[in-house]
Design goal:
alpha+beta, 229 residues, four-stranded mixed beta sheet, single chain
C-alpha cells in the first residue's frame, strides 16, 4: 500500500496514556503522520479537541476526511491498512491471545489507572500502591508472563516483546510499563507472583523502556513540560 499521510491528534506526552498507544505503533511501524498536539488540563482543552474530533477525546486519527477515535480502533485500522507491518502476531493462536490481552487492557484495570496515573517524567515510589491497584498489577504481570513464555520466547523473531516482535499488544501495555516505573512497583510486593514472573516482567519492562520510539516520546514530553514552565 502506498504511503498515506495521517494526522494524529494527541494530548500531552507526560500524561496522555491513550495517545501513547497509536503514536507508538505508527512510529515503530514507520507509518508517516503529522502530529497535532493538544495541551491538556487547560480551560480550553475540550474546545481544542472538539475542533478536530467530535468525541472530544484524544487520540484521534484524521484520515481521508474522517476521524477515527479510540486508541485500539486506530491501531486496528492501521493493522488493516498495513498488513505487511505485522502489527498483530501471524500465528492465529498468538494473535487471538494478543487481541484478548489488548482488549482487557483497553477496558479494564481501572483501579490501576485511577491510583497510578501515567506521569512519564516523574517518580513517585510507593504512591498509588492500593490493594486494588496491586491486584490489577498482578493480573497484568500474569498476562505478560503467559505471552512471553508461550509465544514471545519461542517466536523466530523474538526481540523481547510480548509476542516476539513488536505488536499492538505492546503498545496497549506501554502506559502500564511507564506506570510501573513511575510508582516503582516492586514485583515482590505482588505476593503470589512467582520468581519467574518477576524476571519476565522486569526483562519486558527493560525492553519497552529502551525502545527508541518510547525514548523519543519521553524526550518529547520533557520538551513539552519545559515549554510550559
Amino acid at each position: 500500500m502506498a504511503a498515506t499521510i495521517f494526522e494524529l491528534v494527541i494530548g500531552d506526552k507526560c500524561w496522555s496514556s491513550w495517545s501513547l498507544r497509536p503514536w507508538l505503533v505508527m512510529k515503530v511501524a514507520g507509518i508517516p503522520f503529522d502530529e497535532i498536539r493538544i495541551r491538556l488540563r487547560q480551560d480550553n482543552t475540550k474546545a481544542q479537541i472538539l475542533a478536530h474530533s467530535p468525541s472530544g477525546q484524544v487520540p484521534a486519527l484524521k484520515w481521508r476526511g474522517h476521524v477515527i477515535s479510540d486508541s485500539l480502533a486506530i491501531c486496528e485500522t492501521l493493522a488493516d491498512l498495513y498488513p505487511e507491518k505485522s502489527l498483530w502476531p501471524a500465528d492465529p493462536v498468538a494473535r487471538a491471545f494478543a487481541r484478548s490481552a489488548s482488549a482487557r487492557m483497553h477496558s479494564g484495570f481501572m483501579d490501576l489507572r485511577r491510583d497510578m496515573p501515567m506521569d512519564v517524567l516523574n517518580r513517585h515510589p510507593g504512591e498509588g500502591h492500593s490493594e486494588e491497584a496491586l491486584a490489577a498489577a498482578r493480573q497484568i504481570v500474569d498476562i505478560w508472563h503467559h505471552a512471553r513464555v508461550n509465544f514471545g520466547q519461542v517466536a523466530s523473531n523474538d526481540n523481547g516483546f510480548l509476542f516476539g516482535g513488536f505488536s499492538i499488544a505492546d503498545a496497549m501495555f506501554a502506559p502500564v510499563v511507564s506506570r510501573f516505573a513511575t510508582y516503582d512497583v516492586d514485583f515482590f510486593m505482588l505476593g503470589d507472583v512467582g520468581g519467574d514472573h518477576q524476571g519476565v516482567a522486569r526483562a519486558y519492562m527493560k525492553t519497552m523502556l529502551a525502545l527508541p520510539a518510547f525514548v523519543e516520546w519521553v524526550e518529547d514530553a520533557r520538551s513539552e513540560m519545559a515549554a510550559r514552565a
